[in-house]
Amino acid sequence: MMEPRNPGMSTVPQTAAAHTDSSTPAVEMDPVEYTLRKRLPRKLPKRRNDVYVNMKTDFRAQLARCQKLLEGGGHREICVHGLGLAINRAINIALQLQASSQGALQLAANTSTVELVDDLEPEDPDEAGEPMTRTRNNSAIHIKVFYPDPQ
Amino acid sequence: MEHQPTSFSPSVPLSSSSPKPGQSNFRRISRTEDSSPFPIPGLAADILHMRVKEGSKIRNLLRFATARMQGEGRDSKGASLRQVVFSGSGRGVTKTITCVEILKRKMGGLHQVSKLYYKTVNEVWESPQQGAPGITMERTVPAICILLSKDPLDPQEPGYQPPQTLSPSAEDTERRRGLLRTAQSPSSQQTAKRLCLDDYSVCPP
Known about the structure:
Main location (chain B): nucleus
Oligomer: heterodimer
Structural class of chain B: alpha+beta
Largest interface: A-B, 28 and 28 residues
CATH architecture of chain A: 2-Layer Sandwich
Number of helices of chain B: 4
Radius of gyration of chain A: 23 Å
CATH class of the largest domain in chain B: Alpha Beta
CATH topology of the largest domain in chain B: Translation Initiation Factor IF3
Order of helices and strands of chain A: HEEHEHEE
Largest sheet of chain A: 5 strands, mixed
Strand content of chain B: 25-35%
Number of domains of chain B: 2
Family (chain B): Belongs to the histone-like Alba family.
CATH architecture of the largest domain in chain B: 2-Layer Sandwich
GO molecular function (chain B): RNA binding
Helix content of chain B: 25-40%
Subcellular location (chain A): Cytoplasmic granule; Nucleus, Nucleolus
CATH class of chain A: Alpha Beta
Strand content of chain A: 25-35%
Largest sheet of chain B: 7 strands, mixed
Subcellular location (chain B): Nucleus
CATH superfamily of the largest domain in chain B: Alba-like domain
Order of helices and strands of chain B: EEEHHEHEEEH
């Protein structure tokens, strides 16, 4: 098993290094087929008043959760986070909270970039090719929903 | 709770028999967005405003914006711009944020203020049956407006973000990459040149 694999493994990086010095690493993918597996985003710190919005949970459930935190939970501020496609939903939740509070709540939005890791696993284990990882960026939003301090 | 993410509030009374708009037999005639003023206070009227739509290409938007911000059109206007506003709504919101994030990384030292708001869009729908009244409806879509500025902004403003200082690890990798490039490129260039020269010396005679 090791004999046919070794020469393959040694040739692939060489050819890749020879003509992809400055170009994108995507060229390296050509010889072998890979399955692309997306890892979950890096675990982020989570306080009691952090809400990470996703696209799987029902919109109303997530909105209700935020309302519960602000009204029943006694939090003066909560943080609503959204990544990628969920940015829209995070904004929607924040704006809905603000609208239903009759202007008592304020929003402060921050944007950021999150680095995501994809795993590339060779489709055919006999062919030359080792598991690789690739990083890409995605946009994220962090919205602070808070009652402004009375001054 | 009274209005949902995309709320339909018809301003023309609907007869009970008419089908709901949004179905295929209704045709949308026009779609107008309200030209709301910037949600960010204290902006000049002639500020560079990038309207990011769902189908906008990020490279087109950024090519234009960076050219204006870095002052490539110096001869016409005199100086490069200090501020730029990006705004987008609905499905263009993600793209807007991505544009801003890339521009911040590219230029560095930009102060940012982000604002969220609902944008109202007026749509006029026409019914296929003759004589049946058309429908105008107001939809609200979430929108974002981001101001990027080379000059400092008010840190007390909600949604303010200071310029990002490069984290040491990122800086290191950048520098290492740069070193690698500088270390590699001369030799490769030289070999390339030599090859060319060889070719020339061989070819002309």
